[in-house]
Give the backbone structure.
Amino acid sequence: MMKNDIELLDKKPLVDSFLNKGPRPLSVFSFVSLFAWCDFFDFEFKVINGCLCIFAHGGPGCFLYLPPLGESFDQSTVDLVFEQMAQGGKIKPVNRIENIPGNLLSAFDTDRYNLYLRPVEYVYRKEDLAALKGNAYKSQRHDCNSFLTHHGAHAFEPYLDGDFSPCMELYERWAEDRARANSDEIYRSMLQENRLVHARLLKFWKPLGLIARVLKADGKIVGYTLGFTVDQSTFCVYAEIADLKVHGAAAFMFKSFCADPELKDFRRINAMDDFAMPKVARAKQAYHPSELISSYTISLKG
């Protein structure tokens, strides 16, 4: 199992080599997604029947972070995965396989497994988000124009290592504002978890190959965003934090990122899921996704 950042980073070529053997339908099919959560899990890598299996070990037990990676896998591979997860030969409720795209469900016998639908991922046409044309995007254009009207001295530019502290200070202010406005304990827990996730990604953006940007207004950082390549046509916007007191900053930063020259070769933007939160879902629906991608979790019945 991986015990530190550098040891886990050394696994990036291995993970990428197996990811490249098949399609990447979901944003989680990325080493970045794996690395982002290593404060919470110890990851173990095993090749089973020619497939890379990534086990996540945490307090209550173990689960498979992704379905077996490779050109294909069969029922015997799945059986061996559950045997590997069993402690003392006994399967626990926590033992499961996460992030299974719909096209792989046929590999699992529904008579043997429980099937749980996860929140969908939102995918957009990049050209729509970069242009915001038409009545469908009237509200977003208004927000962008409001930002430009009040902040003529602004800049959207590459993130640098020296931006780490002001970005994390921005996260603290943003999280405090969000927590005051929301009493849901699950949501507040997510704010705490994502503080570590964002810090990790901002610290290791170079070796992870992330594209990261900051939005400045009047010389101060009022937003940051970062993402990575999912496949040749799809870019994932993984994180986006904007000062809630700067009206229109979030909309302007999202539009600017989608129009960024480094994203010119991508046709699709994956904005990830809505965490099963209605307000987040409404915000992502407001940008009119071209596709909603489903994924599933499976566990053994009985």
About this structure: The longest helix spans residues 185-203. The two ends are 29 Å apart (CA to CA). The chain is about 35% helix and 25% strand.
